[in-house]
Amino acid sequence: MEHNSNTSEFKRDLLIYFGIIALTGMIVGISHLKLKTLGIFLIVPIACAEAGVLAYYFMHLMTKKRTVHLLLLLTLITFITLLFWPAWDVAYSPRTPSEFTTF
Fold first, then answer.
1. Alpha-carbon distance 76 to 37, whole Å?
2. What is the percent of the chain with per-residue pLDDT over 90, rounded to a whole number?
3. Is 73 exposed, middle or buried (0-12, 13-18, 19+ CB in 10 A)?
4. Mind giving me the DSSP string for 25-57?
5. Are 51 and 23 in contact (CB under 8 A)?
6. pLDDT tens digits for 68-84?
7. Cα separation, 4 vs 84, whole angstroms
8. pTM, full prediction
């Protein structure tokens, strides 16, 4: 029975490995389309999903305690906040016109 378990884990790891290669291929393909800002909005979620899968399976975070998952959630919330804070600031902060701004 132990042999079957190792075989199923190997198949799962192989599937995840080829999935990571496919996601990387998607990122490279999107970058060659020259989509500018739209490309960023497509690539960042794919890269985040790829990093999450790598961490979850290959860094064995799936077997860690709840504390690790809470820390990962806190990290994700911090990352998203820092990612979108500048856009929020530019869109909603009152500014005086200067030679450096065009809005």
1. 22
2. 33
3. exposed
4. HHHHHHHHTT-THHHHHHHHHHHHHHHHHIIII
5. no
6. 778 888 988 998 888 88
7. 46
8. 0.60
Classify residue 41 by burial, with Cβ atoms within 10 Å: 0-12, 13-18, 19+: exposed
Q: Tokens at residue 95, please?
A: 């500014």
Q: How many residues does the chain have?
A: 103
Contact (Cβ atoms closer than 8 angstroms) between residue 53 and residue 16: yes
Q: Which helix (H) or strand (E) holds 71?
A: helix 66-92
Element spanning 2, H or E:
helix 2-32
- Could you tell me if 47 and 27 are in contact, meaning their C-beta atoms sit under 8 angstroms apart? yes
Query: Taking a C-beta distance cutoff of 8 angstroms, is the pair 101, 95 a contact?
Result: yes
- The secondary structure of residue 93, as a DSSP letter, is S
